[in-house]
């Protein structure tokens, strides 16, 4: 049974706007209202704020805040999967979710059935955690699949129908070649607040400034806005906006498409895959002896049938053999990484 929430036209437009484009300003809801009015939807600051508060109350919006690029902060990340006997899924999933370094943890339909993302200050820390998971679970059949090329991360759903079909492809990023930035102590304090849920009042960045002052950080409210916007512009913050619960908006099916692509075509094919609006993530990851795949696409849709139709369109556009579709059947954990928490 679907847990979708009935959304008004304003709700749909607000959600589509703020998933990746929350204004960094003194009065963001006023700016959002102006943006929507310019697009032909007459609304006010109060209307937009009430819409967001209602979407939060109905659990459509999980959180509003910054998603940092872990590589720019000197961290490393990887996608992992562990082949778990069906009778031990609950136990092993709970064990994995205990780690604060694990941000996402899902059950998928495959022999490698528990898939999780792991972020840590370096490769040594990642390997130590995976070794500990293997020791504690007694299962050493674990895939470690760090991204070697990032073709797309755009976790924002179009709820208005304006972005159907294929679009422009973003620049290709090789995470291992990304240069980390150095943060001052004041910047670290700001980053710690921005990765939390944004305050719900009319002037959330003023509230963040007040929290910094309370902590003894001597900065201005203009500095908070300028520093946040600079991080967005430079890619240190990959996305600033609302993380939503997909099922609440009718997107009840999602699958990770696992593809086997000839190495010489990876760059070309990855960019084709990234052009599909229904693809939120597209990565190249290393092949493993027990896992002969190198391209990954996260596909979101309103039904399994629709997922399969999208995957078929991708197959036709790329000329690859059919994808292995690993459907998500359960969410054990979904959270944001807490950077600089070890300090």
Could you list some keywords that capture this structure?
single chain, 343 residues, alpha+beta, Alpha-Beta Plaits, two-stranded antiparallel ribbon, globular
Structure description:
By secondary structure, the chain is of the alpha+beta class. Among the domains are: 7-58; 71-171 and 247-333, Alpha-Beta Plaits. Helices cover 34% and strands 22% of the residues. The chain is built from ten helices and eleven strands. The protein has helices at residues 9-18, 28-38, 45-57, 89-97, 123-137, 185-194, 204-214, 221-234, 266-274, 304-318, and strands at residues 61-68, 76-82, 102-108, 114-120, 142-145, 149-153, 237-244, 253-259, 279-284, 295-301, 324-334. The strands form two sheets. It has a nine-stranded antiparallel beta sheet with strand order 5-2-4-3-11-8-10-9-6. Strands 1-7 form a two-stranded antiparallel ribbon. Helix 2 crosses helix 3. The longest helix has 15 residues, at 123-137. It is globular and about 55 Å long.
